[in-house]
Write a structure and sequence with these properties.
single chain; 320 residues; alpha/beta; 7-stranded mixed β-sheet; 3-stranded antiparallel β-sheet; 10 helices; globular
Length: 320
């Protein structure tokens, strides 16, 4: 497909993480470059990468002609065809149109320029939609064509900033919840602050739910994640497991009004170390209905609420 588009005159850029895509064969990348695809490796692994090896690009971005965008949890891999040791992967991705695509494109170009270290005179053709960024929100709503329900905010985080942006954003998101917090995550190794917020919200009477993979792709991560379950359950958090093998979405739904769909897991790596991206959706009926129907409430996909903890996986010594 990429080579076909190049033959049609489309400029194609492919950016892959040096560690996350380490299994990509050099011959494949060479063939893509020979076909005219512009390929770059984000912080490739080498003797000289000791200073950056821990900071990985976990973003998933596709921008088409500057007007259509895709982002979310999906990687480009055979695991989504069931060709993995753990079988079927369930994930969530967004198709975006409108001014939000411009920010998605900006984030990709920032990563591209960092990765290529390209300070040459090459001019990248950027397609921008005709939006008046100086128009006030009230003026925006007065335009009949803009009277739609909901809004989207593209939010990126990176490890080379003073503040832990993604962690702070999730902290704020969970803190403002008044009725419910629903989370779908493949890993749950979060920091103490977010862990405490979830417990306190459940103890305050909020409907706090977590859906977690029935089968994990990492024994170590699975054991670490489950070590948090006992105190969460004791606080009133409901934890469900996804029966159809591996669950890979990173979704948070707050009060049926605000949703986060992106690349960031609720673990220390995503919250502090990776280059990550999430989309905050406000008052979005579509995402609300999709999350309710396809993730948490379908009995054929989700087991009953976990009520027992395996002491072999979660030693009681971990809890005070």
């Amino acid at each position: 497909m990429l080579r076909m588009k190049v033959n049609e005159g489309v400029v194609v850029r492919l950016l892959v993480d040096g560690l996350g895509s380490k299994s990509l064969k050099k011959k494949l990348l060479k063939n893509l470059r020979s076909a005219g695809v512009k390929v770059s490796i984000f912080d490739p692994i080498s003797t000289w990468s000791i200073g950056t090896i821990n900071y990985r690009n976990h973003r998933k971005i596709v921008v088409v002609d500057g007007i259509k965008g895709f982002t979310g949890g999906l990687n480009v891999g055979d695991e989504y065809l069931g060709r993995s040791k753990i079988g079927f992967w369930r994930d969530t991705h967004l198709f975006i149109e409108g001014s939000a695509v411009e920010e998605l494109q900006n984030i990709f170009l920032q990563d591209w320029h960092y990765s290529t270290s390209d300070h040459s005179s090459e001019k990248i053709q950027i397609n921008r939609l005709n939006y008046n960024h100086e128009k006030s929100y009230d003026q925006f709503l007065q335009d009949e064509s803009n009277k739609v329900k909901g809004a989207i905010q593209i939010f990126g985080s990176r490890p080379d900033t003073k503040e832990t942006a993604m962690r702070n954003a999730f902290h704020t998101l969970l803190t403002i919840a008044e009725n419910s917090i629903w989370i779908a995550t493949p890993y749950f190794v979060t920091d103490q602050e977010i862990f405490t917020i979830l417990k306190l919200k459940a103890m305050s009477g909020l409907d706090v739910r977590i859906i977690y993979p029935g089968k994990s792709d990492s024994i170590l991560s699975d054991s670490a994640s489950k070590s948090y379950f006992a105190p969460l359950l004791e606080s009133g958090v409901k934890i469900y497991t996804y029966k159809n093998n591996f669950l890979h979405p990173k979704v948070i739904l707050i009060d049926n009004e605000i949703t986060s769909v992106g690349t960031a897991n609720l673990d220390e790596r995503s919250l502090h170390l990776n280059y990550e991206l999430t989309s905050f959706l406000y008052e979005s009926t579509r995402i609300r209905v999709n999350f309710r129907n396809s993730s948490l409430l379908l009995k054929n996909a989700v087991t009953e609420n976990i009520t027992m903890i395996d002491d072999r996986i979660m030693p009681t010594i971990l809890y005070s």
